[in-house]
Amino acid sequence: MNSPLSRLPLLSRGSWPETQRIAEILRKETVGGVLLLIAAAAALIWANTPWSDAYHSLREVTVGPASLHLNLTLGTWAADGLLAIFFFVVGLELKREFVAGDLRDPRRAALPVMAAIGGMIAPALIYVAVNTGSGGGLNGWAIPTATDIAFAVAILAVIGSHLPTALRTFLLTLAVVDDLLAVTVIAIFYTDDLDFTYLGLALIPLAAFGFAAQKRIRSFWILLPLAAATWWLVHESGVHATVAGVLLGFTVPVIRSAAAGGPDAGPGLAEHFEHRIRPLSAGFAVPVFAFFAAGVTIGGLDGFVDTLGDRVALGIVAGLVVGKVLGIVGMSLLTAKFTRAELDTDLTWLDVIGVAMLGGIGFTVSLLIGELAFAGDMLRSDHVKVGVLTGTLIAALLAAIVLRIRNRAYRIIAERETADANHDGIPDVYQ
Predict the structure, then answer these.
(1) The pTM of the whole model exceeds 0.70
(2) In the CATH scheme, what is the code of domain 4-190+240-418?
(3) Do 430 and 19 meet the contact criterion of CB atoms below 8 Å apart?
(4) How far from chain centre, in Å, is Cα 321?
(5) Domain ranges across the chain
(6) Angle at the Cα of 375 (from 373 to 378), degrees rounded to 5?
(7) Tens of pLDDT along 252-273?
(8) Cα–Cα distances in angstroms (integers) from residue 243 to residues 84, 127, 206, 238, 364, in the given order
């Protein structure tokens, strides 16, 4: 007997409201991705000029109250503080997808979730294979497992591809699930000293934040102190503070309560917060982190070649460029085989390969994991940055080539989807 998944083609269209929502998110992420590119390029250029010492000195400037153990460098504030905002949006988006989005249907959720898992396992295995016996290099196994959605969407905007709606949704959902897996890895594998007292205390403001959100309290004078207290306690517990962002996002209701009229009464606070905070995340928090994280003094061509001679950098490049494609495409093929589902007739497996190549654009979370994996080892940290930047660039170029080849087919599909014979504002394919 066929699986229930066999009745739903892989990467089929979602609902029209979901398509509109995804399109709006991707427009915002495109702007954020462009700012991310600018910030990363500025840092990389500055760090390789005669004034590179000024850049490194700026990154090491410390600010914050020492009494709260928060006298941190600007680079650490960007990684621990600003990225918590980014992960808060990730938490909101993930909950939105699985509670009220098309992915509440397990049949639609299966492919991006399995692809994200494959896109994590394969790069990690390749990295481990390259770094076995490298002397401490294995600690960075998780670096090539992440996908940067803002960077990937920005690349799409630059190459001007008419990516089909189903593939855009697949890319976005895969990246969000990927981020959740990444923050889980950070919490479990990159926490050295865990203080259960602080971790337990963090549940108090977290529960209070969730209670206030469930009561539809929108006052930032109430929510911000609770969020800040949760963040600080998680930070003090030894768990990376970005985990607090995801947990806070999970507490926010996606739909209105039954007392307020149920789902038909309108969206919950998650959509409201997402509209308010996503621009701050994509337009400020992530670009600032990129500025402080991407600056590495390469030392010319010779320095670049020497850096890639380190197996840590090679493992990262191989993981991002090769591992991501093998993991995402391989797991997608396995999902199709075991569920007896077929790829939607509008698409080909070359389309999936192109999106999988975009999955090799690691950057933000990869750089964060690199900082945690090799904290205190400046040489290895620099090699991580070069590896991430190189792998991201190669993955982006390969994806651009494949998507350019498919560009004509994408344009035909896009025209078909926007056909509106009934002139009611909703394409016929969604009716």
Answers:
(1) yes
(2) 1.20.1530.10
(3) yes
(4) 17
(5) 4-190+240-418
(6) 115
(7) 988 765 444 444 455 668 888 8
(8) 7, 24, 12, 11, 15
